[in-house]
Each structure stands twice: as C-alpha cells, then as structure tokens.
Amino acid sequence: MSKNNKGELPLYEVFIRSKNGLDHKHVGSLHAADAEMALMAARDVYTRRGEGVSIWVVKSTDIVASSPEDRGSFYDPADDKLYRHPTFFELPDEVGHL
Amino acid sequence: MGVVDREFEKLEAAFQAKVEAEQRIEPKDWMPEKYRQTLIRQMSQHAHSEVVGMLPEGNWLTRAPSLKRKAILMAKIQDEGGHGLYLYSATETLGISRDQMFDQLHSGKAKYSSIFNYPTLNWADIGAIGWLVDGAAITNQIALCRCSYGPYARAMIRICKEESFHQRQGYEIMMTMAQGTEEQRDMAQDALNRWWWPTLMMFGPNDSNSAHSAQSMQWKIKRQSNDELRQKFVDATVPQAEFLNLRIPDDQLKWNEDRGHYDFGEIDWEEFRNVVKGNGLCNRERLQARVDAHEGGRWVREAALAHARKQEARKAAAAA
Ligand SMILES: [Fe+2]
Ligand SMILES: [Fe+2]
C-alpha cells in the first residue's frame, strides 16, 4: 500500500494465542527484515506481560483478503438458506429442549 | 447534481449511519477522504508523542536513585516505545507508510504533544510525569477506546491496559518524596509547579477555539470535548494532590458546589502556542535526538535486510 518505502523493512502481521485452548488472534503488525526478526520483535512489542503462549507472524503481502465492496454478493449464497439456522424449525413445546 | 456526486453522497450517508450505529470502520471499508486524513494526522501525532515521550524520561535512566527505580523506569519507557509501535502500525492501515510518517516527524511537518518539550530537571519530575502526564494521557485515551476507527480503538484498549502502571509508579514516587525529607518535599512541590499547567494544555485548546473538534465528534473519532476531558482530569487529580499534601499552583482552583466540579484558572495559551510553534525549551533537542536515532540505526536496518536477502538466496540455491 505504501509508496515511497525504499529500504523500509517489510511489514508482518502478528497473531497471538493468549492461552492454550484459544485461537490465535490478530493483534497488529510490525516491520522486520525477516521472519525470525519479526518473531522476536513481536515478542517484545506484543507480549511484555505474558499476553501470549504462541505467536504467528505472516508477511502482510502474503495475506489474501476479501474486499468489503462485494460484501453483498460474496456472502449471498448463505442468505437464502435459512434452514441452516435452528430457529427455522418450529417444534411443539412438549418436545422440550432440542 | 451529477451521478458521481449522488453516488458519493450515498456512500457518505451510509458511512455516517454506520458510525452513528456504533459500528466500527475497518481499514478496507469506504470512508470519506477527510476522515482518513484526519485519522492519519491524529494517529501519527499520537504515535510520535509516545516515541518522543521516551526522551524526557530517558534523561533520568542513568540517574535514577536506585536499581529498582531504574528497572521500573526502563520498563515504563519500553512500554511507551511499544505504544508508539502499536499506533504506527494502526496508522499504516490507512495507507501511509512508516517512512512517510518518520519523514513528517523529522522534517517538523508532523507535531507531537507539546508536553515533551519541557525539560526534566529533578528526579521528582519523573514522578510528576507518571502521575500527571500519564494521568492526562489516560483520560484522553479512555475516551478514544470507543473511537469509530477499529484499529485505533483496539490500539487504545491495549495501551490503556498498560498505562495504569505508569500513573501508579509516578504517584508512588511523588508519595515517597512528599513524605521524605524537607528537601525531597520541596523537589516534589517544584515538579508539580512546573508540570501542572503544561499538563492541562495536553487536552488542547478550549472547545470554543478548537478547529477540528465538531467534525471529529460527528465522525466519533473524538468522543468527548477537550474541555470535558480537562475538567475530568482536574476533578480526579485535585484530591490526589491533597493526599500528597502538595499545593496545585492555581489560586483560582476551588470546588464549585453548583457545578459539582472544580473551577480552575485560565491556561496561558500564549505559552501553549509558542511551544507548539517550536519555541519550547527542548523542541530542537527532542527533534535532533529522534533524527540522530533514526540515522544512527540506518546501518542496522540495512545489515538486517542484507542478511535476510543472503539467507533467502542461500535457501533458494539449496532447493535448486
Ligand atoms: Fe503511552
Ligand atoms: Fe504511559
């Protein structure tokens, strides 16, 4: 995205698992020369108080993202399948919790 | 009205509706160009403030009175560097590069909080900065946790979690000194005298003179006005000063029963404008220190990149 970034270190996105049992979550980004340096910097920048047990770093340019403009049509196929939701099915109260 | 104008108005109305519904705006969403520019200006200035803010405190790293105080101060300063990095990274999502932001800071085009252009003269200044300057920053930043721009709001939440340690360590220094010898008490009072008014200036001009405020409030970039936040800070801080048995240097400071707030004196706006313009006691020194640090680190960045390229090439050769 940035233009005049000659010599700027590449941008990495940082994902952190805060504790076992939870997913990795995006926390921000940082600049580093390579993945190894990115991991160390991520530790220093994003986990100074034991915020993580596992870190992923990914080069920002390697991330493929959907675009918000086609939010409508992109998610269309899901919209007409209301039967995917449990509330679609009407059952008598006598059946109890189901 | 042309088709393009009408299309733009529709987009803008949808954007405003989203903001009003308290939905967050994310980097790839459509946003008015002025919203983007306002955020870039405000967020990069905020990032610069965190980074330049390390300098006045860094002045006392080698002179802290004990190893414990030194270690704590080091951790605090490291946090501020971290805050700068969270904010630079959040600002980059708006399409400006890190280097562009550094250029703007180093050329003097971008501003940072004027508070960091004041010198730190005695050890109690470190206490006063943590207590007052970080306290004012927290007041501002708590309001920003609900900012309409997602990455900014998330960075603020992360930062606020770390700030309370900063304010508490500062207050503890003040407490220790205020209860210490006569000389230590005087140092604490002297620090409060010098930092009080510049701290109140951190909230910016009065609402009646604040150029960008109305639009920023409408966009929910700002959630509370400068004067509201300043009042909040004064109300919270006066009892803390009383507990320390220190005197806030303002003859007009008085509890107003009707308003349910403290009344306080007028800020010297001439001084504020002068420091913002670059004529504060340390403006030149601070900027030079940043430029030197950036230039001094150049060979490290270049070496790291060269190393990465070499590793890359080696890997490719081994795979071939
Ligand atoms: Fe900070
Ligand atoms: Fe802080």
Describe what you observe in this structure.
The complex is a heterodimer of chains A (98) and B (320). Chain A is α+β, with helices and mostly antiparallel strands. Chain A has one domain: Ubiquitin-like (UB roll). Chain A has helices at residues 35-46, 71-79, and strands at residues 11-17, 24-31, 54-59. In chain A, strand 1 and strand 2 form a beta hairpin. Chain B is globular and about 75 Å long. Chain B has 320 residues and is mostly helical. In chain B, helix 4 (67-92) packs antiparallel against helix 7 and helix 6 runs antiparallel to helix 10 (226-244). In chain B, a hairpin with a 4-residue loop joins strand 1 (254-256) and strand 2. Chain B has helices at residues 3-20, 33-52, 54-58, 67-92, 98-106, 123-144, 150-178, 182-201, 213-218, 226-244, 269-279, 283-296, 298-319; strands spanning 254-256, 261-263. The chains are: A alpha+beta (98), B mainly alpha (320). The interface between A and B is medium-sized, with 27 and 32 residues. The complex binds fe (ii) ion (FE2) (2 copies). One fe (ii) ion (FE2) binds next to helix 4 and helix 7 of chain B. Residues 80, 134, 137, 163, 166 of chain B line the site of one fe (ii) ion (FE2).
